[in-house]
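tokens incoming
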């Protein structure tokens, strides 16, 4: 890590354009963080202070006028109570400006920063700040360590600070995603609250977040309640009809109405009423109509002939609109045996179009939020190391039909001496807090284990102590494994298990061994726990499998049955490529009720 400052760093906020970037400010606002204390970010500050042995540590977010500290430890009065300063007292604004770390052994010697009021009034002398970023890489602030005397920051300290900043950035990103999800949820609730008319339709639209399902419910509810037959048209990117669904009150007419819907995509002329509604967003009421209306709006004779068989004497068409954008068109048609549509019908249809637009918009937003949540979850999973004596593969699969992120995680990294540390864990919960705690826990494992030759039970005990000392309120399981090449060409394995499902060894020849022992408690209990190191060996070709309980646990059966099924699936899989083995375990199991993380290590 190098000094990220520069001699011409601007001192006044007005000259730092990055501070005023509207996308950055919007992302910062979506964290919903203020100058009030936030326990999660206070934990990050305490971690920095403890691990780097500094008197002051801050999670500093910078807007266009100030910096504020949702996480803080060590600030003197009155700043500790205010949890914010003007930019005249800010070093972190320059981290936002540069987009890179800023490391200062003695700020008083820096030409551009020695006159910053943070030096005399906050006692900032030595400073190390790492950027905190959103998912798009925009810098929202800095995770910084501060000393009131000069110091030379070590590479290990800066690496630790960088790891903590990555976890802190993940927390910020999760807060932003939560804000988006909450907005989508509020919008759906508001839309459902306004569905006072057509209660049956309201229930069906509110009961699904799938666009196709919502359209089928919409179509089927309108017929025969409001019309003899109906068409629901959605537009494509070019504004032309793309998807058309249809219904008729007479089941015998289903083929005819389906054919009419099919021709709607290709058989409409420039004078088509549907095209006019899609283009202008204005409704059209044909209180008394004839087949000439169909002929004028179509090309070729087939659609008028179908309309004659389906019954056509009155029609109305209304736009499906969401946030001012025309998504499609609802068309209702009555035959001669039913009264003509009037203005009251048009009002009901317009209401349906608006509500359908909201339902479709919410469905699409749900899909986008689910995608964002999954991207965030995967962004917190590490890249696996590449080694000559071990092959690694990992998978993460979220539970079906859920937007939330969860607490399952895995990790694998090389020690300076060449040993491999592998870990897997599960934080209780399926929400933003579980995912945030997961990110902290994974980084704590790295911070506790990297560069240490300690036995795995000692590493796990230290992790217990850290969780207790930092008052992390969490229920979590974990398994920690150390692999070291031996002279026989295999791998010596030691492991420690804190309440997690036992590791498995798939031996050459197809046998499966459960690496079990006396059960040990979860992580983070209030009292000290004696941890145990256990030993085994991997011969060349043997595979070690670490997994979370979503692979074996279901609400409708004992977990022992799930373990029995897993062992049966693993039997004879020793020759499968490692990635194929992981895929097999995920695809052959029943529908998931929980997230699943897998980490497989094979001696080669």
């Amino acid at each position: 890590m190098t000094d990220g400052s520069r001699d011409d760093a601007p001192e006044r906020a007005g000259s730092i354009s990055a501070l005023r970037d509207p996308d950055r400010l919007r992302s910062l606002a979506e964290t919903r963080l203020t100058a009030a204390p936030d326990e999660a970010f206070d934990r990050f500050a305490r971690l920095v202070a403890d691990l780097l042995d500094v008197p002051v540590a801050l999670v500093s977010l910078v807007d266009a006028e100030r910096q504020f500290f949702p996480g803080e430890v060590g600030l003197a009065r009155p700043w500790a109570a205010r949890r914010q300063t003007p930019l005249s007292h800010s070093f972190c604004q320059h981290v936002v400006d540069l987009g890179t770390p800023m490391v200062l052994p003695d700020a008083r010697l820096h030409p551009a920063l020695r006159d910053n009021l943070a030096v005399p009034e906050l006692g900032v002398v030595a400073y190390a700040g790492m950027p905190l970023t959103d998912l798009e890489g925009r810098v929202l602030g800095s995770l910084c360590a501060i000393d009131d005397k000069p110091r030379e920051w070590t590479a290990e300290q800066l690496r630790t600070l960088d790891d903590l900043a990555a976890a802190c950035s993940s927390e910020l990103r999760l807060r932003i995603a939560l804000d988006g999800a909450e907005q989508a949820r509020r919008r759906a609730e508001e839309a459902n609250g306004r569905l006072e008319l057509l209660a049956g339709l309201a229930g069906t639209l509110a009961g699904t977040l799938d666009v196709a399902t919502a359209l089928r419910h919409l179509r089927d509810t309108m017929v025969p309640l409001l019309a003899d037959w109906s068409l629901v048209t959605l537009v494509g990117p070019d504004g032309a009809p793309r998807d058309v669904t249809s219904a008729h009150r007479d089941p015998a007419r289903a083929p005819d109405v389906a054919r009419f819907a099919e021709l709607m995509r290709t058989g409409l002329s420039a004078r088509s009423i549907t095209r006019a509604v899609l283009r202008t967003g204005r409704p059209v009421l044909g209180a008394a109509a004839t087949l000439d209306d169909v002929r004028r709006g179509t090309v070729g004779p087939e659609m008028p002939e179908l309309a004659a068989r389906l019954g056509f004497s009155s029609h109305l068409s209304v736009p499906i609109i969401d946030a001012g954008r025309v998504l499609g068109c609802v068309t209702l048609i009555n035959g001669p045996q039913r009264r003509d549509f009037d203005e009251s019908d048009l009002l009901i249809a317009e209401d349906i179009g608006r509500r359908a637009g909201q339902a479709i918009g919410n469905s699409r937003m749900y899909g986008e939020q689910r995608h964002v949540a999954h991207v965030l979850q995967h962004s917190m999973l590490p890249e696996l190391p590449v080694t000559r004596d071990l092959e690694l593969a990992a998978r993460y699969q979220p539970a079906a039909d859920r937007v939330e992120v969860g607490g399952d995680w895995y990790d694998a990294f090389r020690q300076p001496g060449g040993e491999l540390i592998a870990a897997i864990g599960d934080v209780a919960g399926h929400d933003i807090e579980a995912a945030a705690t997961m990110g902290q826990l994974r980084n704590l494992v790295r911070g506790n284990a990297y560069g240490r030759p300690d036995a795995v039970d000692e590493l796990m005990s230290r992790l217990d102590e850290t969780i207790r000392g930092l008052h992390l309120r969490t229920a979590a399981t974990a398994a920690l494994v150390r692999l070291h090449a031996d002279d026989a060409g295999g791998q010596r394995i030691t492991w420690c298990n804190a309440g997690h499902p036992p590791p498995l060894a798939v031996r050459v020849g197809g046998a499966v061994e459960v690496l079990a022992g006396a059960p040990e408690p979860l992580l983070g209990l209030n009292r000290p726990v004696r941890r145990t190191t256990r030993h085994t060996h991997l011969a060349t070709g043997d595979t070690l499998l670490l997994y979370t309980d979503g692979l074996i646990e279901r609400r409708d059966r004992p977990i022992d049955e799930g373990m029995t099924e897993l062992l049966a699936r693993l039997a004879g899989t020793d020759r499968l490529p490692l990635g194929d083995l992981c895929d097999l375990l995920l695809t052959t199991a029943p529908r998931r009720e929980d997230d699943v993380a897998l980490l497989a290590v094979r001696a080669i």
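note: The radius of gyration is 31 Å.
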